[in-house]
Design a protein that fits this description.
globular; Sulfotransferase_dom; Sulfotransferase domain-containing protein; Rossmann fold; 11% strand; alpha/beta; 7 helices; sulfotransferase activity; four-stranded parallel beta sheet; 36% helix
Length: 218
């Protein structure tokens, strides 16, 4: 877990072709929509899509757009201290907030959540992370891609089991790769999960395949 934490923190920031939904039909205004996943798995893209669809993002804009995320990171600085300070989270009801997968365990049980969990081809994630760290002048974790991939896969398995056991959480697994291949089909699934609260055509409009720069064969 230490190496995994170091990897996630250094970026500040698969289960490809797999979608599973759990929906109990709640009013979206009572829920907090959470976009989660590993760094470089498409979480910022999903936040932008939700915003276009009509779900207000709960962000602070402290992390400005850059070459790695020219459309913005859609982050909230307070998420980093979620474990020790979460009284403010009620403000996110009916909105979308991005929370790195490792911090999901710190979500207080007094709220209801709809979690959109992003997955991406693992080789693409590792390549994208490596390019990002290189641009930031960082050396990474001094761990091989194979070792890091195993740790990431183990983490993903653990977090899905945890999500599945939380009575206050509904979740959907979404493939970044599939959204870019079949946007309408996948956006319809996501909208159904959010109780048909979004404008699907506007979500499609903000998809930018030009930003799909690290591609690997499935």
């Amino acid at each position: 877990m230490g190496i995994l934490r170091k990897s996630l923190n250094s970026l500040h920031g698969s289960k490809s072709n797999f979608i599973k939904t759990v929906n109990r039909g709640k009013n979206i205004n009572k829920d907090i929509v959470v976009v989660s996943g590993l760094p470089r798995s498409g979480t910022s893209m999903m936040m932008r899509m939700l915003e276009a669809g009509g779900i207000e993002p709960f962000i602070d804009n402290k992390r400005v757009p850059d070459e790695d995320n020219p459309n913005g990171y859609y982050e909230l600085e307070r998420i980093k201290s979620l474990e020790r300070d979460n009284e403010w989270l009620y403000e996110a009801k009916g909105k979308a907030v991005k929370i790195i997968s490792m911090l999901l365990y710190n979500l207080p049980s007094r709220y209801s959540y709809k979690v959109i969990f992003m997955h991406r081809n693992m080789d693409e994630i590792l390549l994208s992370q490596s390019k990002m760290l290189l641009r930031k002048g960082k050396n990474g974790n001094h761990i091989s891609d194979k070792e890091l991939s195993v740790k990431f896969f183990n983490h993903l398995g653990e977090i899905e089991k945890w999500l599945d056991n939380q009575s206050n959480i509904e979740f959907i697994n979404v493939s970044y790769n599939d959204i870019l291949k079949e946007p309408l089909k996948n956006i319809t699934n996501i909208n159904r999960f959010i109780n048909n609260a979004m404008d699907e055509s506007k979500m499609v409009d903000v998809l930018d395949s030009a930003l799909y720069r690290q591609r690997c064969d499935s």
